[in-house]
From TrEMBL:
<dbReference type="GO" id="GO:0004640">
    <property type="term" value="F:phosphoribosylanthranilate isomerase activity"/>
</dbReference>
<keyword id="KW-0057">Aromatic amino acid biosynthesis</keyword>
<protein>
    <recommendedName>
        <fullName>Indole-3-glycerol phosphate synthase</fullName>
        <ecNumber>4.1.1.48</ecNumber>
    </recommendedName>
</protein>
<dbReference type="InterPro" id="IPR013785">
    <property type="entry name" value="Aldolase_TIM"/>
</dbReference>
<dbReference type="InterPro" id="IPR011060">
    <property type="entry name" value="RibuloseP-bd_barrel"/>
</dbReference>
<dbReference type="InterPro" id="IPR001468">
    <property type="entry name" value="Indole-3-GlycerolPSynthase_CS"/>
</dbReference>
<comment type="pathway">
    <text>Amino-acid biosynthesis; L-tryptophan biosynthesis; L-tryptophan from chorismate: step 4/5.</text>
</comment>
<dbReference type="Pfam" id="PF00218">
    <property type="entry name" value="IGPS"/>
</dbReference>
<dbReference type="InterPro" id="IPR045186">
    <property type="entry name" value="Indole-3-glycerol_P_synth"/>
</dbReference>
<keyword id="KW-0028">Amino-acid biosynthesis</keyword>
<dbReference type="GO" id="GO:0004425">
    <property type="term" value="F:indole-3-glycerol-phosphate synthase activity"/>
</dbReference>
<dbReference type="InterPro" id="IPR013798">
    <property type="entry name" value="Indole-3-glycerol_P_synth_dom"/>
</dbReference>
<keyword id="KW-0210">Decarboxylase</keyword>
<keyword id="KW-0456">Lyase</keyword>
<feature type="domain" description="Indole-3-glycerol phosphate synthase">
    <location>
        <begin position="5"/>
        <end position="265"/>
    </location>
</feature>
<comment type="similarity">
    <text>Belongs to the TrpC family.</text>
</comment>
<keyword id="KW-0822">Tryptophan biosynthesis</keyword>
Length: 267
């Protein structure tokens, strides 16, 4: 049966084919070489965790989602980026997928230009061409969703990210994906592994996902708890499970005062 993730993968492949037809690998690499230098996404998270002893925040700029519809009408990426930065975020995540999240490539570029924080391009990568494209847009980190790629493609995306000086957040949702992620980063000391508490197929959210998978996360990997975090109690719960960073969108995007909400979540 075709579910949300399968539908996203299908339109992404079409979209990437069209983009590649318009901009060759050589051309996209030329743009990537012109981009402002990577800011060190994983390093910023590790530094913040070391300083505070508490999980570092990756704050997400997200207008809408397939599970929640419109999340924030008053949507100005540079203004939101600055509010997150003042509120204490260590990094940003910016949705660039249009069809499902009402994102845009320009949101990433504009948000990043407004702050000093490293930025994750939050999109669905199905082709190595998108890695250089992400760098060309200014991304400091890409997302590798294990449920969307086979092992060979995951390895290619990770190698390509490293070649461009970017980090890669390797996202898992179950034990099989975590085992594959561990295999993927075997021998590396720079792994960034995420546990998405939300299923991208059913949209069900359960913070126990982080608790269950944390123990399987490879030694030395920096563990990111993703999705469904609303309160300082939620933060404490995933911190106890071993998360050194948090990826939070909706609960902050729904607040009128994003800076105050960011501060309150981290308090
Ligand atoms: O809005 P939330 O529940 O705080 O979740 C943020 C982030 O984890 C979520 O947007 C996300 C995690 N992995 C993804 C992959 C694709 C799109 C979106 C996501």
């Amino acid at each position: 049966m075709s579910d949300v993730l399968d539908r996203i993968a299908a339109y992404k492949r079409e979209d990437v084919a069209a983009r590649k037809a318009a901009v060759s690998q050589d051309a996209v690499e030329a743009r990537a070489r012109e981009a402002s230098a990577p800011r060190g996404f994983r390093a910023a998270l590790a530094r913040r965790f070391a300083e505070t002893g508490r999980p570092a925040l990756i704050a997400e700029i997200k207008k809408a989602s397939p599970s929640k519809g419109l999340i924030r009408a008053d949507f100005d990426p540079p203004v939101l980026a600055q509010a997150y930065e003042r509120g204490g975020a260590a990094c940003l995540s910016v949705l660039t997928d249009g069809p499902s999240f009402q994102g845009d490539d320009a949101y990433l570029t504009a948000a990043r230009a407004a702050v000093a924080l490293p930025c994750l391009r939050k999109d669905f990568l199905v082709d190595p061409w998108q890695v250089a494209e992400s760098r060309a847009l200014g991304a400091d980190c890409i997302l590798i969703i294990m449920d969307m790629v086979d092992d060979a493609l995951a390895a290619e995306l990770l190698t390509e990210a490293t070649r461009w000086g970017m980090d890669a957040l390797i996202e898992t949702h179950d034990a099989d994906e975590m085992a594959r992620a561990a295999q993927l980063v075997d021998g590396r000391d720079d792994a960034l592994i995420g546990v998405n508490n939300r299923s991208l197929r059913t949209f069900e959210v359960d913070l126990a996902t982080t608790e269950q998978l944390a123990a399987m996360s490879p030694a030395g990997a920096l563990l990111v708890a993703e999705s469904g975090l609303f309160t300082p109690e939620d933060v404490a719960r995933v911190a106890d499970a071993g998360a050194r960073a948090l990826l939070v969108g909706e609960s902050l995007m729904r607040q009128a005062d994003v800076e105050a909400a960011t501060r309150a979540l981290l308090a």
